[in-house]
Amino acid sequence: DSGVTQTPKHLITATGQRVTLRCSPRSGDLSVYWYQQSLDQGLQFLIQYYNGEERAKGNILERFSAQQFPDLHSELNLSSLELGDSALYFCASSEGPGGVNTGELFFGEGSRLTVL
Amino acid sequence: AQSVAQPEDQVNVAEGNPLTVKCTYSVSGNPYLFWYVQYPNRGLQFLLKYITGDNLVKGSYGFEAEFNKSQTSFHLKKPSALVSDSALYFCAVRPYNQGGKLIFGQGTELSVKP
Questions:
Q1: Cα torsion at A8, A54, B93, B89 (round to 10°)?
Q2: Counting Cβ atoms within 10 Å, is residue B88 exposed (0-12), middle (13-18) or buried (19+)?
């Protein structure tokens, strides 16, 4: 058990809809990361938050947004969903904001999103 | 651009034999390199990392990795493979000055047969 909790584990929805994925980081970790895993794209970094502030941004679509709350949990909002958004979405956490002393990332079990 | 490449989609090994999963990297500055393992329908688990120091890094479950600066490689190794090592293995690099994110390779499926 990594200590990172993600909900829901599975989600099935229709095109055009909006969903919210939730992540609670490991105790003591201030950084939260979101990744998308799909067969054709592999593991793609979406965004990182550190202590409530956006720290790094990756290949995140404009239809997607995220935030980190004062209690350090994070939410990833996916809107106007398309078939191609079907994927496994991972949250990860780490102690630091970046650089050599940040440490490794600890991953949750993921949220599997299916868009029909 | 900073990246890692895993040249083999799949590696097949007999139980008890040594295994190697290959990774090459491209970075500017000092490389911060990682290996993760993913079992079916699970999240990624950290195996080991290279930040600085000894070129041979020891990690979880008997795995080790050798950092080779001249060949820009960071191959994952284990002296004696177990059937339970069968999983998807990812090499990753932390880019310099881009937060704490990791950039992952495409992954290598390791299959260990009895």
A1: 0
A2: middle
What is the average pLDDT across A19-31?
A: 96
Query: What is the structure's pLDDT at A41?
Result: 87
Instruction: Check if the beta carbon of residue A105 is closer than 8 Å to that of residue B100.
Output: yes
Model confidence over B65-101: pLDDT tens digits? 999 999 999 999 999 999 999 999 999 999 888 888 8
Task: Tell me whether A24 touches chain B (CB under 8 Å).
Answer: no
**B45 lies within 8 A of chain A by CB:** yes
A1 contacts in chain B (CB < 8 Å): none
- CB within 8 Å of B41: residues ≥ 6 apart: none
What band does B107 get if pLDDT is binned at 50, 70 and 90? Answer: very high
For residue A61, which phi and psi values (nearest 5 degrees)? -70, 155
- Nearest of A93, A86, A85, A115 to residue B44 by alpha carbon: A93
If DSSP codes are grouped into helix, strand and coil, which group holds residue B83?
A: helix
- CA distance linking residue B15 with residue B13, whole number of Å: 6
**Six-digit token pair at B1?**
């651009």
